[in-house]
Amino acid sequence: MWKFHRSGSGCYFSLSILLSFIVIFFLSAQATHHVHHGHILSHPHYKHQHSTKSSGIASHSHHKPTPKDGAGGKGGGSSHKSPRSPLPNNGLLFDFYSSTCPQAESVVMTVVQGFVSNDITLAPALLRLHFHDCMTRGCDGSILLSTDGSKTPPEKAAAVSFGLRGFDVIEAIKAELEKECPRTVSCADIVALAARDAATMIGGPFWPEPLGRRDGFVSRSKDTVSVPNPDDDLGTLVAKFAAAELDVLDLVALSGVHTVGRAHCVSFADRLSHKPDPTLNRTVTSFLRRKCDIPRNSRVLVNNDFVTPFAFDNQYYLNILSGQVLFSSDEELLSNKATRALVETFAGNVFAFTNQFSTSIIKMGNANVLIGSKGNIRKTCSSVL
Ligand code: HEM
């Protein structure tokens, strides 16, 4: 087991910026060198990283679409850890529905806009849904299933899924698409597109979304051990992201989503108990103790970002630096020189954050996807049929 070394606090900001650009360069180039003291890139999972990058809208001629494929498709069962595809975006295509359902993206956007304009809190909820879908068995819509027909509880019933919302938005999009192009657009693709459109509605970047995912048949709460917990240390976070084909740069950039959305007190209550977490700002600790009335109201909701709670900006990174983030997993990003340097870069440059975020979320959406004849295209997203 490898460990991260905590960095000292005397790092000069300018030096950190320089350091972080070097780190971004090396990580982007998928170098296999060690980074500073962290030995992040020596992690066994890391060596399997790929170099999928958002390189704009592309059109590929491989991977023929299989529209209107019914429930009888193969795959999507227990063998979800298929070997990594050598294809760009793991075989997903930016123009996947161009001939089979050209209106797919506009239908998704219209429905998302309808819901989010009525309730802005659904925008972060949809982003979190995409993350949880991709972190368990790959982005295959398994988070949406109410049951997979087995006796095991589904992913959405797991403790780590607590607070997930937006299922009704996905189901409404699916119903609309079933009218327009029956059995063509997968629930997994709908989740990815809805997350993208939701981000855009709260000031986030727009990214081209590779499509063609198929839906899985399996959803088991025990598989959610791969989803990060708010009290995970940096090593655990890195390992969990690596299992989803994501690297340290992706971890830091994607965590920036905690610049929006809310959390239940139960998700960070441990940090407020008898011996409060010293990395949490004292004023914030007192505020949260009052708000959560620990331990009684641990279902109370608190904004992730106290400063600009509804804006998709880089405030999250400033909040980390001032000890004002809710989860110790957020604070952990300061515990290593390389991740701290990235936090400082993103705190100082919103475009560095949003650009990297777009790249990383495309990569996240490619994780362990089912394509071709694997999985199926569901009729409703909560059921395998
Ligand atoms: C790095 C590891 C991460 C951990 C440990 C983590 C954990 C959590 C927890 C515990 C909550 C609060 C749940 C609740 O109490 O209701 C939350 C909220 C949220 N997370 Fe994360 N998360 C992580 C990364 C991500 C990533 C990568 C994304 C998206 C790309 C994401 C998106 C969100 C959003 C948008 C919310 C707010 C949801 C809402 O307002 O409904 N998280 N996260």
Mind explaining what this structure looks like?
By secondary structure, this protein is mainly α. It folds into two domains: 13-49 and 229-364, Peroxidase, domain 2, CATH 1.10.420.10; 88-227, Peroxidase, domain 1. Helices cover 37% and strands 2% of the residues. The chain is built from twelve helices and two strands; from the N terminus they run αααααααβαβαααα. It has helices at residues 13-28, 104-118, 122-135, 167-180, 187-201, 234-243, 248-255, 282-292, 315-321, 328-331, 337-348, 350-365, and strands spanning 262-264, 301-303. Strands 1-2 form a two-stranded antiparallel sheet. α1 packs across α11, α2 packs antiparallel against α4 (167-180) and α9 (315-321) crosses α11. It is globular. Mean pLDDT is 83; it is low at 1-19 and 25-81.
Topology, pairings included?
Blueprint: H1 13-28, H2 104-118, H3 122-135, H4 167-180, H5 187-201, H6 234-243, H7 248-255, E1 262-264, H8 282-292, E2 301-303, H9 315-321, H10 328-331, H11 337-348, H12 350-365
Antiparallel strand pairs: 1-2
Helix pairs in contact: 1-11, 2-4, 2-5, 3-5, 7-11, 7-12, 9-11, 11-12
The chain binds protoporphyrin IX containing FE.
